[in-house]
Design goal:
Blueprint: E1 2-4, H1 5-8, H2 20-29, E2 33-39, E3 46-58, E4 64-73, E5 76-82, E6 92-96, E7 101-102, E8 106-107, E9 111-113, E10 116-118, E11 121-122, H3 153-156, E12 162-167, H4 178-189, E13 221-223, E14 235-244, H5 254-262, H6 270-282, E15 287-290, E16 298-302, E17 308-310, E18 316-318, E19 324-328, E20 331-335, E21 339-340, E22 353-360, H7 362-371, H8 377-384, H9 391-406, E23 409-410, E24 415-418, E25 426-429, H10 432-437, H11 443-452, E26 456-460, E27 463-467, H12 478-489, H13 509-523, E28 527-528, E29 534-535, H14 537-540, E30 562-563, H15 568-580, E31 586-593, H16 617-626, E32 632-639, E33 641-643, E34 652-653, H17 656-670, E35 675-678, E36 684-694, E37 697-705, H18 707-712, E38 719-725, H19 726-732, E39 748-757, H20 762-773, E40 777-786, E41 795-804, H21 813-831, E42 834-835
Parallel strand pairs: 13-16, 28-31
Antiparallel strand pairs: 1-12, 2-12, 3-4, 3-6, 4-5, 6-11, 7-8, 9-10, 14-22, 14-23, 14-24, 15-22, 16-19, 17-18, 19-20, 20-21, 25-27, 26-27, 29-30, 31-32, 32-38, 33-34, 35-36, 36-37, 37-38, 39-41, 39-42, 40-41
């Protein structure tokens, strides 16, 4: 929110000498965030000049310039070259003299051009920062100004003003107005605040309790939202005013243009500028219609299926049944709270104007703005909540400006349909504020703070009843009130005392194991990443057949409306981004949850508890059952070279082995043991894919991407991935870690090569050997898988390295051989294995 200081001073007593730093500091004290400072970037001398004479001089380049004599001070005529032709002798204009600086910065100096020495420049509105108009110079008569020659043009046009910018959090929509910021400045400094929404300030104003509806000159309005979407009533109040016989050819005055410009809004036309001016001043978005183009009565309703609207930007938009519309008898004339329609817009031929000041449901407006990608200043305010009690005053303020600046005549009628709901009081128990804030505020300080923000405080038996003001929809419970007291009285009153952590607590078992996994993978050189949990339908099917997924009713990105069922698509996206930036050797991993919907999922139209009271146990159980399962997973992706080329060592590219190593590291970190078996999986190479098992339960997958898929995803031809259900892995991890003494007696090592059917997994054969070898076997691993000459077709030779050790003696070769043969016998009995000759 940008706040022009001259505008702010109209409603609060800010010192004339206040600096931007002082204004920022005051607003920061009440919780607003400092963003920046905005000025017009002008330096004088910039004065009012009068055109005494000029001569049109055609040039060889086809242009015709004017050699002008301009009086910039009585008796001081300057020769100035000008390329514009929209002015006449006797016109008063803005002259930037040598030494002046225009926005850019663009310094002005006397210079020779087109055969003359131009001693300054006649400025356009765009060059002064007053707008985008650059077709000609700024004629002061068009702004209704007739100043003396030589007067300071910067002060005349309000270009000596400045604005501070503050960040307004979404819960404080009232601060998106000069009215709201002036009130906050008053809270911070104690300066007197004058409410610009006070109807007595405007000649056409009416009290907030005025109930005059549809006199002879008012237009009929119908609120037709009897079946609101998700329980949200689309429009609670619709106020209309009519101004007739306006002069749309009149220009917006300079003071309004400069204030709007500092507030970040460009000047368009007088009728539109007045609506924007009142919106910034009071926080109530307005819309002005060409009354003569409206057919019949106005109806506020939801869009019908297949309905379309051409908005002010000339775009035809297909409407959603959730969109709230302003319509007449011929169809839609506006997308409520977002943008008006082209058919009824105010133009240069508009003579009669209908002013609309309405209150719309924040959720409805937010969804329409995002759905149609139409963020606007109006929707930004409606999304955060607009004061429903300011609508009549805002419409009356706009009417007064139209009468004053556009020469219109106001109808007496104030059309008002709908009501302003009365706020329910909140019980604030005695000493509650101090208990939750941790400060020592007196009751009177709390009452004064709540009264200052506009609340009505009534003393009750056990505390106070606090009725929040209409402009603070964010104040819903006593905790909100406690926060307001702390904010207004001063955060500096809250003691800076760190709480003492209770003894005997630390990480939970799951947290500790999760940290061990991430530490293990990071220590091997992999980088932990965090990908978005939102995926597209195409991504859902990358590494598995299309599975049911949770679809968001209001996704951040319409192209990715689903919650992920695997971590791998997110890792692919991260890899693509890094590869596009030249990082080809990647080892990345992520720990995160996936979302696996069960039979019951809350649909987008399901009614949810209001939040004003605790739901029943049955409702909570239903909600809990509707939440999708969210198991924790760990996934990794490897591309490029795992070992880079160096002297005496060839490069080693990423492969299945790296994915399996990462899986083994994960299992080691949690104290579990994984079995690896040949497998197939969608998107992975059928000959280079392994299933990861805990006993007979598959808990993960590892493999290399199918080259065609890797090419389609813009990844290197060889890319390896692995994904493990970490939740299941941690469930099977031992809860007590036991240590073994370091063996001091020598080990006996032997190898054994067994021939088995090629279809039998090596892990099953190894398991049989381990089981048969008994307690003397300390370690066993597969070191070779041979298929070729010397081994029958359909068979394979598996070589295992065995290490034997006894805790109390040195084993003999005979004892080690006996244990080895026992393992061979076990493999022969289970899988028909025999020793390779």
């Amino acid at each position: 929110m940008r706040v022009p200081v001259s505008w702010l001073r109209e409603f609060v007593d800010a010192p004339a000498s206040i600096t931007p730093d002082e204004l920022h500091a005051a607003l920061v004290r009440v919780g607003l965030e400092e963003e920046g400072l905005h000025t017009f970037g002008l330096e004088g001398p910039i004065v009012v000049g009068e055109v005494l004479e000029f001569v049109d001089e055609p040039q060889s380049n086809g242009k015709t310039i004017r050699w002008c004599q301009v009086d910039v001070c009585p008796g001081d005529a300057r020769g100035i070259v000008c390329g514009a032709h929209n002015f006449f002798v006797g016109d008063k204009v803005v002259v930037t003299l040598p030494g002046a600086v225009l926005p850019g910065p663009f310094p002005i100096a006397a210079r020779k051009t087109y055969g003359h020495v131009s001693d300054g420049m006649i400025a356009s509105a765009r060059e002064l920062g007053l707008g985008d108009e650059h077709d000609g110079i700024l004629r002061l008569a068009e702004l209704g100004l007739d100043p003396e020659v030589g007067a300071d043009a910067i002060a005349l046009l309000g270009l000596d003003d400045w604005a501070v910018e503050v960040n307004v959090t979404p819960d404080r929509g009232y601060a998106l107005s000069i009215r709201g910021i002036a009130r906050e400045y008053s809270h911070a400094t104690g300066a007197e605040f004058r409410d610009p929404a006070d109807a007595s300030r405007w000649s056409s104003g009416a009290s907030q309790g005025d109930t005059r509806i549809e006199t002879a000159n008012a237009i009929s309005v119908i609120l037709d939202d009897r079946a609101p979407i998700r329980g949200h009533e689309g429009c609670s109040q619709f106020v209309t005013r009519i101004v007739r016989d306006v002069d749309p050819s009149r220009h917006t005055p300079a003071w309004m243009i400069s204030r709007l410009g500092l507030a970040g809004i460009r000047s368009i036309s007088l009728l539109v500028d007045i609506s924007n001016y009142v919106m910034v001043e009071l926080g109530q978005p307005l819309h002005s219609y060409d009354l003569d183009t409206i057919r019949g009565s106005i109806t506020v309703r939801r869009a019908a299926p297949g309905e379309k609207l051409t908005t002010l930007d000339g775009q035809e938009r297909a409407l959603d049944p959730e969109d709230l519309l302003i319509t007449d008898e011929e169809g839609p004339i506006g997308l409520a709270g977002v943008m008006g329609g082209e058919r009824t817009e105010s133009t240069s031929s508009t003579r009669n104007v209908l002013i609309e000041a309405a209150n719309f449901d924040p959720i409805t407006i937010a969804r329409s703005a995002r759905r149609h990608r139409l963020p606007s200043e109006a929707s930004r305010r409606f999304e955060r909540g607009v004061d429903p009690a300011v609508a009549v005053a805002a419409a009356s303020r706009a009417v007064d400006l139209l009468v004053e600046l556009a020469g219109g005549t106001a109808d007496a009628a104030i059309g008002r349909v709908g009501t302003v709901e009365d706020r329910s009081p909140i019980v604030l128990p005695a000493d509650y504020v101090n208990a939750i804030v941790g400060a020592d505020f007196t009751r009177q300080e709390a009452v004064d703070a709540l009264t200052a923000i506009g609340a009505v405080v009534t003393e009750a038996a056990d505390g106070d009843l606090v009725k929040p003001p209409t402009w603070r929809p964010d104040l819903r419970d006593r905790a909100d009130l406690a926060e307001e007291v702390a904010r207004i009285v001063g955060y500096d009153r809250i003691p800076a005392v760190l709480p003492t952590a209770p003894p005997g607590r630390g990480l939970t078992r799951e947290q500790s194991l999760r940290r061990s996994v991430s530490t293990m993978l990071a220590s091997t050189g992999a980088t932990e990443v965090m990908a978005y949990p939102f995926v597209s339908e195409e991504q859902l099917g990358l590494f598995g057949e299309r599975v049911p997924a949770v679809e968001l009713s209001n996704p951040m990105d319409g192209a990715a409306p689903y919650l992920r069922t695997s971590l791998l698509p997110g890792l692919v996206t991260v890899a693509q981004r890094n590869l596009s930036r030249g990082l080809t050797d990647l080892a990345i991993f992520e720990l995160g949850v996936v979302y696996l919907p069960g039979a019951a999922i809350v649909s987008r139209d399901a009614a949810l508890p209001s939040g004003t009271q605790r739901p029943s146990d049955a409702v909570l159980e239903d909600l809990e059952a509707s939440i999708p399962a969210q198991p924790l997973r760990v996934a990794a992706l490897f591309t490029g070279d795992v070992i880079r080329k160096q002297p005496g060592l060839a490069a080693s590219g990423a492969s299945l082995a790296d994915a399996l190593t990462a899986a083994e590291q994960v299992a080691t970190a949690v104290g579990a043991s994984l079995d690896v078996r040949a497998a197939t999986s969608h998107g992975l190479h059928p000959g280079r894919t392994a299933g990861l098992y805990l006993g007979d339960e598959e808990v993960g997958i590892a493999g290399e991407l199918v080259p065609a898929l890797a090419h389609e995803l813009d990844l290197p031809r060889r890319a390896a991935v692995m994904e493990i259900d970490l939740s299941r892995l941690m469930e099977h991890a031992p809860r007590d870690v036991s240590s073994h003494p370091i063996a001091t007696l020598p080990a006996a090592t032997q190898d054994v090569s067994l021939v088995v059917d090629a279809s039998i997994p090596a892990a099953d054969v190894l398991g049989a050997v381990t089981e048969g070898a008994g307690a003397l076997l300390e370690h066993a691993e597969l070191v070779d898988d041979y298929r070729g000459p010397g081994v029958d077709s359909g068979m394979k030779s598996l070589t295992f390295a065995l290490r034997f050790r006894a805790p109390d003696r040195t084993l003999t070769a005979a004892e080690a051989t006996e244990a080895k043969l026992a393992g061979v016998a076990s493999a022969a009995a289970k899988w028909g294995a025999f020793l390779r000759e």
